[in-house]
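Lecture 7 notes. Example A: sequence first, then its structure tokens.
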Amino acid sequence: MSKTLKIGVVGFSRNQFNKKAARKILKDAFEALQQKHPDKNIEIVSGYTNSGVPKIAYELAQTFQYTTVGFSAKQALRVKSGVFPVDKTIIIGEKFGDESNDFVRHIDGLIRVGGGKQSRHEVALFKQVNLGRPIHLLLKEFEVDWYGD
């Protein structure tokens, strides 16, 4: 069996952002992954919530037939939007952020689409964990318009 490539996706988990732009960014990124790693099983690992960038990432992952992984704290089980019906779940800690250190150690690459404090913190942690590796090959960051307060 071929190696599994675990790609983390972080970004806005609330819905007041340019979803069309985010969807295009992720679709392009997933197509690039498919072309670059045709021999690998790809897992899309995100925050488990059924809203925002995680929801878009999971929906697209399903169309690409990638495995979906919900990686979050127990707090995700109590959010209004609910959780996305992922293939696998990893729950660590009680509140959002408790899982961040484990999340960045679990993934092989990271895509950030917008996002707030936690997304940017996870990018910083990912950079620390991957010191000395070609980070430009492992990390892709994109900004999209935020419409919220």
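Example B, a different protein, same format:
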Amino acid sequence: MFALKKVTDMSHRYLDLVISPGDQVIDATAGNGYDTEYLAQKVGPQGHVYAFDIQTEALTRTAERLRKSALYERVTLIKSGHEKLTDYITEPVVAVTYNLGYLPGGDQRLVTNVQTTIESLSQALSLLNMGGIITITMYPGHEEGNYEKLKLIPYCKKLSTKEFTVLHLELLNRQKQPPELIIVQKQYFQ
């Protein structure tokens, strides 16, 4: 049974629709490694995950999680900002996921930045296979997270309707600005 409680779970449900064993995918914000681990399970031993983070602590936590679940070999951990996706990846991917904000349990002053996120998103769109998706989990409950939301939604609304379909999901009956999800799919026929 599927419960609509966590936006990250909803993100995974959409990713489930497009990721198959052998695929190449990107976790643009590795954080504690939950999404990276999920993606590594989905792509199987023949696929590959590229996981980005600017914090050594995040990559260390992600590496530990992957080793414990015997998935480390399926992942390349990259200590770099997600705005450098195309410096490391040139092959098409079927999915890119973003979990914005700060590292849970880390320094809450180190947060994702809307300018680098939009630059990264532009690169991710260019790497995306037809039918592929990008999921963006936003956290408007803190100042920078709200600013990101206010900039990302108009950016995504302006994406070409001939090339992309964009969905915005909100938990309407939750208090204190709960996380929100944007899903972008590249159209099959353009």
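Note on Example B: The mean pLDDT is 91. The two ends are 36 Å apart (CA to CA).
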